[in-house]
Structures are given as structure tokens and as C-alpha cells.
Write a structure and sequence with these properties.
homodimer, alpha+beta, 60s Ribosomal Protein L30, Chain: A, Phosphoribosyl-aminoimidazole Synthetase, Chain A, domain 2, 6-stranded mixed β-sheet, 10 helices
Chain lengths: 333, 333
């Protein structure tokens, strides 16, 4: 018989001893080193909504739960630290699945987190549920000495830049949902959905260099997340969708009627690209960094005055005259 | 149509502007004032496991979710601060229920939290689920200037002290589960289950005064939580159950075969009493504080050497020769 406490011990053992905490797992609360962490984010994955067990291994789910939080910290231009995990698990617990979850979290930590940061388990809570698995992760992070990069500091004239190509995770999910194509032929897209790679290193370096005026990750999809920046900064924007590359495999899938490339690119969530605004004077620095670190960077438009709202040119260069099918967390009626 | 973002705005509006945070809800991560918070705890409530909608109003559930986290911070001898909320809600969302949840959280904050601390919503995440409601709350807190009170510093000779009477929440739950009695006649016990009152003020004052050598809240039940202190401190203990008062209503319920008083008192969880160890030299200070603040304090035994293990005298004063029916979060086979 395995108890909650044993499962938490195993999680604890899967990660390095927590750094930045004097007390981790095993007391009523964790005790942080004074002044170490100043960022907090929280993300939840629900089975059947954010993942399905027939489409994702336990390791993929573990990877994704860590990746979503790493991406939020990266979007603040900061570096990740200790995390706290709440798991609601069906009874009886599938121990192999839970150990897969730990493994996926460890893999994500090893692959995605540069050596300059240490991600570790600071605490957790495991409960039973009669329903689907629910995983909530709270992650602490450190803003760069230059301060956190917010959503609210974009100003007219700033360039709009995306690091990496949005839409691949949404295309990968469409492949898994479709009976019309063989998932094995689109492994790269399926992998983008199962094992998204947030820009942990790039986020930290951009924050440190003070390059972006504002930043967000594209967890909700490019246009929706652009909207979050516009609302927070009280500005408008012109977004040129045609500046974004489209993988040949995605066009093939559109031809096979699996879905719409433009919806994936402009509306698909969970790629965890970084969407930022950059003052023109800092663009040379950004291009330098992109060359130095091998980043794929796309200049996709300009911040405008608030009266201009959000103008979007589609992948064909024409004004977008339709609602893009957007990533939805949630709606209540 | 109400979106995730609107629900989070309502939660935000229900609490005072966050103190100790320069950025709260509305960015990728919250930004904390440097050095303000050094405690982190996380607790999850699952519908059907930790609460049932037929036994608890939404306001009760909101109260309890905040209370469980407040209790953890109190058990560290600290004071509560910003919290982060993750909600997994069935589709379509019952907006009245969610607003009740906010209300209950506000009520708990108003009633349980002394003016010297400010509890506010720092962020959150709302998801859909096809299953029961899952509520995860992460709370930040501040240890007292004297440092956090851990589980690991009990030493042989320390007195074992309980603040408040354990067992009432478990008796209240038994009333709700039973067909044999009328819940209206046991309102006080039912209320102890629905609206547990953690010792937020007392925990902070005890931490500040440096009275306890170790402390824990009785969320898992007296003996189980005593065991956590013994394991962490590597000591034994003699616990005298007969030192604890038993409400007349609880004896009545035992007579009506609703349950076992001794199980409730020694094994029942979720009262959120404070269980602490106190060096004998500091007992006079504790009695002074109890008089000054009107605390109900019970000296229930002594910390011993590790070789003595956990010796328990039951409510009748005789050595306990049976397994107490304990509060269980979770077991996997």
C-alpha cells in the first residue's frame, strides 16, 4: 500500500534538493530563503481537457505540466525555481502512471532548464478524485535584475516579434484528433503538441538584456495573447500573419482537410512561443542575440495607437475578415 | 457568456488590492515585493472527497479552502498573505456556485484573519472538467521575525499541548453521514465541520513569542499529526487522551451509534487545532497568553526519547490497545 506521503517522497527524490528553500517537502509550509523568489505562477492540466491518456503518455503529461509553468516564468523574463504540485488522482492510483509523471517532469527540467537555474519540488498535495486527473503546479521564479517584463509596457511604434513558430502544437493535436491521417507521418507536429518547448533560456536572457518592452507566451494562441498585451498596455496593433512561416506538413494537413493552417498559426494555443514587443532602437540587439543563440525570430508587425484596435493581415497578406478559431480554456454560459 | 478571465476578475474584485505584490492577477506571473513572503503552502479540496454539495453550501467550501491554507501558515507560527487559486469546474459552470465560493472565501478572510495581515488573490487559473470540482489554493505567508516553527524541533521533556478541542469536525461529518440523528440538533458540530476555525491569530502570536519548539495543525487527526512531529523530530511521546474534554453532544452521538468519540478525538481530521510541543520553562508564558487571549489550551502529555515510540492513553486513561480510525487523504494499492 502506497500512501500520499510515500508518493510525495518519491517526487521529492526525483528532483535535486531544493535550492532557495531552507525547508521543502515535509512541514506545514515550505520556507523560502529571504528575497530569493519574486515571481509566482500557477497552471492546471485536466485530463480530457488539456490532455487525453490515449494521446499522451504519463511522461508527456509531466513534461507539459512543468513546461506550462516554465513558459509563464520565461514570459516574465525571469528564471524558474521551486515548484509545488497538487495531484487529484482516481482511486485506485495507477502508480506506474504517477511515476511516469515524475519522469516527464524530470525530463522537462533537464532538457528545458539551463544550468543557471535549478527547478525542484518544494511541496505538494495528493488527493483522491472520482473524476479525471487534475494536476496543478505552482512555480516560483526570479525576475532578472532588470525587473520583470510585463504585458503592460508596449507603446506605439514598438515592433511585434515572435520567437519560434506558432501553430505547430495545434496542428499536432488536430492530427491526433483526425482519422484521416496517420499520426506517425506527422511526428514532428505531434511532438510539438506532446512535448512543447517553452523558451526558458531565451526568456531569461531577453529579460536580463532588457530587450522587450512587453512579453507574453502564446499559451492561448497568437491573436488572443496579442489581445492580452493590447488590453494591458492600452494600445492597438497591426499584425502581419504572412510574416510567419508555415511548415509544409501543415499545408499538407490542410489539403487533407484535417484543419485550417491559419487557425492553427493565429489561434492555436500551447506552443509556448514568446510574443514580445520591442522598441525599434533595441531591434539590433535582438537580431544580435538571435544570431548568437540561434533563435528563430519573426518580426510580425507594429504596435499602434489604441484607436486602431487590432488589425490583422492573414497568411495571404489580406485583411482578416473572419473570426479565427481560437484556443479556449473555458466558457460559462 | 462568462469567460475564465471574467470569473478571475470577479475573484480579484472580491478581495482587497493585493498587498506584498506589485503585480497580481493579469500577467503571466504575479510579482512579489522583494523579501515579503517566505512561506508557501498548497491545499486541494475535491468534491466528493473533501466536501459534498449536498452537505456544504458553496460558501462553506470557499471558507474551508481558505481555512485549510490559513491553518498551515498558522502552524508555522506565521501570518498569511496572497493566495493563488486553481479551479476545475464542470461545464456548464454554475455561476451562482462560483460566486458563493468567492463569498465564503471573503467571509473566512474577514472572520479568521486578524487586521495585522491582509489576505488577497494574487492569481489563478480556471479550467473545465468532466468530473467533480477541484479547488487548489496556494498561499504565501510571512514567518515571524523569530523564524518559522517547524515540526522537527521537539525534544524529550517538552510538554505536548493542543489549542482547541479536536474531534468536533469529524463528529459533525458523522452527523451529516448518519440517518439516525437530526443534523439540526447538532448544529455546533456540523458547523465545526462546515466552517472550521483555524487559529490564525494564535499561530502568529505563538510564533512571535517563540513559545512552541514544534507545531503542526491537526488537519490529519491528532495522533497522525503527532506522528508527523515524532518522525520529523526523531523522538517518542506519551499522549494522554483523557486530558481532552468531550462535548456532551458527542457522547450522545456515540450512544446513538453514530460513531466513536475516541476515534473522533484522536483520529478525526480537519478541525485545524494547533498541536505543539513546549519546553517546560516556556509553559508559564503559554498559560499567560492563554489567559490573556482566552485560548482553550490542553496539556496532553510529554515528548519522550525515540525508543519509547508513541504511547497513547485513551479517553478512559487506559493504554490504547487498538488502531484508531484515522483520517485518510489517500491510499494507493
Amino acid at each position: 500500500m502506497t500512501t500520499e506521503f510515500e508518493l510525495i517522497d518519491k517526487l521529492s527524490a526525483a528532483f535535486p534538493p531544493p535550492e532557495g528553500l531552507s525547508i521543502g517537502i515535509g512541514d506545514d509550509a515550505a520556507v523560502l530563503d529571504p528575497g530569493r523568489f519574486d515571481l509566482v505562477t500557477m497552471d492546471t492540466l485536466v485530463e480530457g481537457v488539456h490532455f487525453r491518456r490515449e494521446w499522451c503518455e504519463a511522461t508527456d503529461v509531466g513534461w507539459k505540466s512543468l513546461a506550462a509553468n516554465l513558459s509563464d516564468i520565461a514570459a516574465m523574463g525571469g528564471g524558474p525555481g521551486a515548484f509545488f504540485l497538487s495531484l487529484a488522482l482516481p482511486d485506485p492510483v495507477d502508480l506506474a502512471w504517477v511515476e511516469g509523471l515524475w519522469t516527464g517532469m524530470q525530463e522537462a527540467s533537464r532538457v528545458l532548464v539551463p544550468d543557471s537555474f535549478e527547478v525542484s519540488a518544494g511541496g505538494g498535495d495528493i488527493s483522491q478524485t472520482s473524476g479525471p486527473i487534475v494536476i496543478t503546479l505552482t512555480m516560483l521564479g526570479e525576475a532578472s535584475p532588470a525587473g520583470p517584463v510585463l504585458r503592460s509596457n508596449a507603446v506605439p511604434g514598438d515592433r511585434i516579434v515572435v520567437l519560434n513558430t506558432p501553430g505547430r502544437a495545434a496542428a499536432g493535436l488536430a492530427v491526433l484528433q483526425s482519422d484521416a491521417v496517420d499520426a506517425k507521418e506527422y511526428e514532428e507536429l505531434v511532438r510539438a503538441y506532446r512535448r512543447p518547448c517553452p523558451e526558458v533560456r531565451a526568456g531569461g536572457l531577453l529579460g536580463l538584456a532588457g530587450v522587450p518592452s512587453s512579453m507574453i507566451d502564446t499559451s492561448d494562441g497568437l491573436l488572443q495573447d496579442m489581445g492580452h498585451i493590447l488590453n494591458a498596455s492600452e494600445v492597438g496593433a497591426r499584425v502581419e500573419g504572412f510574416q510567419l512561416p508555415v511548415a509544409e506538413s501543415m499545408s499538407e494537413l490542410e489539403d487533407a482537410e484535417v484543419g485550417c493552417v491559419e487557425d492553427w498559426v493565429l489561434g492555436g494555443g500551447e506552443d509556448f512561443c514568446l510574443l514580445m514587443t520591442v522598441p525599434p532602437a533595441r531591434m539590433p540587439k535582438l537580431w544580435d542575440m538571435a544570431r548568437q543563440y540561434g533563435w528563430e525570430v519573426h518580426d510580425i508587425g507594429e504596435i499602434r495607437g489604441p484607436e486602431e484596435g487590432l488589425q490583422v493581415l492573414g497568411l495571404d497578406g489580406k485583411p482578416l475578415d473572419r473570426q479565427v478559431d481560437q484556443f479556449r480554456h473555458f466558457e460559462a454560459s
